[in-house]
Amino acid sequence: MSARWKESVRTVAFMVVLSLVSITSVSALHLATAQRVNRNADLYLQRAVMEVADVTVPADAAAVSRWFAESVEAEPAGAPTRFRVRDAVTRDTVALAFKCRGRGLWGTITAVVGMAPDGRTFRQLRILDQNETPGLGARIGEPWFMRQTAGKRGPLKLVPEGTRSAQPNEIDAVTGATISSAAVRDMLNRLLDEAPFKEAAP
Amino acid sequence: MTAHKNWKLFKENLGTQNPVFVQVLGICSTLAVTNVVKNTVVMCLGLIFVTALSNLTVSLLRGVIPARVRMMAEVLIIACLVIIVDIYLKAYYPDISRQLGPYVGLIITNCIVMGHTEAVALTQPPTAAFVDGLAAGIGYSYVLLAIACVRELLGTGGLWGFNVLGGAWVNWAIMVMAPGGFFVLAVFIWIVKGCFLKPARKEKE
Questions:
Q1: What phi, psi does A124 have (nearest 5°)?
Q2: Using the beta-carbon criterion (under 8 Å), do B76 and A134 form an inter-chain contact?
Q3: Would the CB atoms of B83 and A26 count as touching at under 8 Å?
Q4: Which of B68, B80, B83 shows the shortest C-beta gap to A11?
Q5: Is A119 a domain residue?
Q6: Structure confidence by residue, pLDDT tens digits, A109-147
Q7: What is the pairing mode between strands A81-86 and A170-172?
């Protein structure tokens, strides 16, 4: 075996061993924390539902989960998962929340969209997960953008950023992020078409 | 002797060879994560962890790493450490992890980390490499923290989320946006180069 050949084998073997060690350590850590990471994701969703239902979110994580368990019925049967938020005392439906997906520029946008019990009037929305361009499309996660849907009734139309339209069917787009803004608009409009609202009343 | 050399390495990274204001490395993250002090602290701790341990690991392996694939090996080690930081943040500090977004992952491509494994860890013994990595991380961190303090104070009127300047303060919106980072960093480099680094440069010549 020539020295060059030997050197090549050693190089490849070194990279294989190094890769295996890296993969093993990262995977082990991932598995060890997976449960915790999932619990964090659940909590984030619960907080989002609480916010779009206009309930004050307590700082304590356990209190959020307790509220969620007592006041929210998750109805995963429909295409977008529906959460029915009930009043603690009267058990009336006080708000609806939907977990929706839309196709953004770089990946899927996941959001919780709040709705009044009539199933027609939007409340705020919360972006759960997105991979839009930082500084442009990612601004759909800014508070003013997520708050502006409150009180709007579809079908929604985009107007230039800064308009702050009072029209019930107009929301501000994010400048420089036409695709991301349209993705959110379409997600909301689709919700109006698809979601089963008829039995939303009680 | 070695202790003296290590101390010199340490001092250089904080002063005359500072990665941010002398070598102007890692500017991307300097601009991106310095709008709020809390995020900056987390980012800095992550970077110190990665520079120190990647330098140590590469230095320990420096006799074994084949020269032709040394960069691949370095990036793999760095990436592994960064992912560990990322997973840790996701599990224990989910809100901060969400706010830092892609920037923790981008430590992998931070020039400071790669530069120090290439320039120092491949040639120096483990202790010196570790000290150098630690110092480079700290050198980066104190500059970032200084910038973050200015930006958060002027941009939100508070520090670490607490209101400091009172209700009458009008927030400078530009400070929390990316251009604010440019201005503060530029002013910082200007002051440091003008006041502190001139004598050192003359000595060299």
A1: -65, 165
A2: no
A3: yes
A4: B68
A5: yes
A6: 999 999 988 888 899 999 998 888 877 888 898 889 999
A7: unpaired
The pair of structure tokens assigned to B112 is: 């400071």
Taking the C-alpha atoms of residue B120 and residue B99, their distance in angstroms, rounded to an integer, is 32
Q: Tell me the angle at which helices A3-52 and A61-71 cross, rounded to the nearest 10 degrees.
A: 60
Q: Beta partners for A157?
A: A170
Say if A25 falls within a structural domain. Answer: no
Non-local CB neighbours of B177 within 8 Å, separated by 6+ positions: B35
* Closest residue to B91, CB basis, from A22, A25, A33: A33
pTM: 0.78
Chain A, nearest residue to B64 by Cα: A14
For residue A179, the enclosing domain spans 73-200
**Which sequence spans correspond to the domains of chain B?**
2-204
| Residue position matching structure tokens 């607490």 | B162
Interface test with A, best of B28, B72, B87 (most A CBs within 10 A): B87
Q: Is the pLDDT of residue A195 over 70?
A: no
Q: What's the pLDDT tens digit per position in B95-132? A: 888 878 778 888 888 888 888 898 888 888 999 999 98
Total structural domains within chain A: 1
Q: Is residue A154 part of a domain?
A: yes
Mutate to test the interface with A, among B53, B76, B104 (most CBs of A within 10 A): B76
Alpha helical stretches, state H, chain B: 2-14, 27-32, 37-60, 70-92, 94-100, 111-116, 126-156, 173-176, 178-195, 197-204
Q: pLDDT for B161-202, tens place per residue?
A: 777 777 777 777 777 777 888 888 888 888 888 887 765 555
Q: Is the ipTM of this complex over 0.85?
A: no
- Residues from chain B that touch A36, judged by Cβ atoms under 8 A, are 91-92
pLDDT tens digits along A81-104:
888 888 888 888 888 899 999 999
